[in-house]
Design goal:
It is built from 5 helices and no strands. The chain is mainly alpha-helical and about 80 residues long.
Length: about 80
Amino acid sequence: MVVIASVFVTCAYLGYIGGAEMEGTDAMVEEHAASTANVEATAIIPALTDVVGEPAGFTIAGIIAGFIVGYYWTEMFRRRGNA
């Protein structure tokens, strides 16, 4: 598991420093929709990634999701009786 995670992190970092256009599709879709409607794309509320940056924002979101899944882990995968 550690090796797989290390490969993902390494490849993502190499793509980032290599200058690859790795932006998400949400930004591309928003820009395309705004240009189609002849308006400027604006955010209603700032996202967490706008405040702290994408790497830190996704890290914080992953930690919070990990705590939630970890808390409910036994409930999600408990075997039910034949009742």
